[in-house]
């Protein structure tokens, strides 16, 4: 979750608005300037940003390999059962 929240006025010298971020159940409040600095840091260091591994090719290969493995297991189980009951 990422949204702008208003300061409730408990601390008068604080910012009037903060950026609220909830990441895996942990709450964060960032000032606008801290968020801008974090964005600049991310632009300078793109190698530190995790790669998105959820591409179409990856999804296709995961599905293909999973289907191949499950299909093989079913074929082997069928062969073993047929041999056990002397059908083959």
Q: Unreliable segments (pLDDT under 50, ≥5 consecutive)?
A: none
H and E order: EEEHH
**Strand order in the largest sheet:** 1-2-3
**Overall pLDDT score:** 84
Shape estimate: elongated
Count of individual helical segments: 2
**Between the first and last Cα atoms, what is the distance in angstroms?**
59 Å
Strand count, sense and barrel status of the largest sheet are: 3 strands, antiparallel
Secondary-structure-based class equals alpha+beta
| Proportion of residues in helical segments | 40-55%
User: Radius of gyration from the CA trace?
Assistant: 27 Å
Number of strands: 3
Strand content range: 15-25%
Brief digest:
The protein is α+β, with helices and mostly antiparallel strands and 88 residues long. It contains 2 helices and 3 strands, in the order E-E-E-H-H.
What are its keywords?
single chain, 88 residues, alpha+beta, 48% helix
Textual characterization of the structure:
The chain is elongated. A hairpin with a 2-residue loop joins strand 2 (17-23) and strand 3. It has helices spanning 32-44, 56-84, and strands at residues 2-6, 17-23, 26-30. Helix content is 48%, strand content 19%. The chain has a three-stranded antiparallel β-sheet. It starts with a strand and ends with a helix. With 88 residues, the chain is of the alpha+beta class.
Set down the secondary structure blueprint.
Blueprint: E1 2-6, E2 17-23, E3 26-30, H1 32-44, H2 56-84
Antiparallel strand pairs: 1-2, 2-3
